[in-house]
Design a protein that fits this description.
binds zinc ion; single chain; TIM Barrel; 311 residues; two-stranded parallel sheet; 12% strand
Length: 311
């Protein structure tokens, strides 16, 4: 398995170099050693409930009734946040509101190359003191996360696998209505480098189509499971309209952020999280883990921006 992934990294490195030469976008990342921005697949693949076909389902919160969000269909994220009150951040253990992100750049710093292949980056080239929150798979569906996202106007991007999230896309639709985006993460969460082109294309494109059908919005981003991919992945993703494949530079764990290198956030870092229940996070809920992440973001002088504005 490890050999497969390493060979995937080598072949993908050549493909990315080609993309970067043309796109001049993710080149800063591509120039770094692979360990700095490629995800370490071992942890994610070992984590329970991470969306593998044989993974355990996440917490279903059967005994908890979602608290109704203020407003219904058509209610904007701003309306909902305003209804949450100016002190709503205190409810989530923050000592000040999450700062509004700066005005997004006029054009996205990460763009597909002229070759048409998606750009790949674990970090967006920007000087803005922003980081990007991405949440994967979709096993756990904690209703409190909806309230938190509304209260804090927290932007994030969801990368859903059908095997994990497909049973209840309605939950993710509530998060999407708050202004967050939904993208694909394959049908059944395989290591794509173990599949030929046709198999990869089926995994990627069918899930992009299911997301489009379920949410009414065509996804433009795609994240490969475990962050592993090869040249066939790039071609397959391009064939179904993927413009970029975000990886990550920091991984949100129950014990705090784990960085691919160094010990601090950098401008433009993409942060990986998963929809996981307390049994997979040392007894901590999604909102516990996200709140700890936000306190760390504030402590380091950053705020959270919308990935789709940059990538
Ligand atoms: Zn995943």
């Amino acid at each position: 398995m490890r050999r497969t992934r390493r060979s995937g990294r080598r072949s993908s490195a050549a493909a990315i170099a080609a993309v970067c030469l043309l796109a001049l976008t993710a080149c800063a990342d591509a120039a770094r050693p692979p360990e700095e921005w490629f995800p370490q697949s071992a942890e994610e693949s070992a984590a329970p409930g991470d969306g593998r076909a044989d993974g355990k389902p996440g917490t279903r919160h059967a005994g908890r009734t979602p608290r109704a969000l203020p407003g219904g269909d058509g209610t904007t994220r701003k309306d909902v946040a305003r209804a949450g009150g100016p002190e709503a951040y205190r409810r989530w253990g923050l000592d000040r509101p999450l700062a509004a992100p700066p005005t997004p750049p006029a054009s996205r710093p990460v763009r597909p190359g002229e070759s048409g292949l998606p750009a790949v980056a674990g970090r967006v080239p920007t000087r803005d003191k922003v980081v990007f929150l991405t949440i994967d798979d979709g096993w756990d569906k904690d209703p409190e996360l909806i309230r938190m996202a509304a209260d804090l106007r927290l932007p994030f991007s969801m990368f859903l696998s059908d095997s994990a999230a497909g049973g209840d896309y309605g939950y993710f639709e509530e998060l999407r209505r708050l202004g967050n985006s939904v993208h694909g993460h394959t049908l059944t969460h395989p290591d794509l480098t173990s599949l030929p082109y046709a198999g990869q294309r089926r995994q990627i494109c069918r899930q992009q189509e299911r997301v489009a059908a379920a949410f009414g919005v065509r996804p433009t981003l795609f994240r490969p499971p475990y962050g592993t991919y090869d040249e066939a992945t790039l071609r397959a993703a391009a064939s179904c309209g993927v413009r970029a494949m975000p990886l990550w530079r920091a991984d949100m764990k129950a014990g705090g952020l784990e960085y691919r290198s160094g010990d601090r956030l950098r401008p433009g870092d993409i942060v990986l999280a998963h929809f996981r229940g307390p049994e997979q996070q040392g007894g901590r809920t999604m909102t516990d883990v996200v709140a700890e992440f936000l306190r760390e973001v504030q402590r380091q002088g950053f705020t959270v921006a919308r990935l789709e504005d940059y990538m």
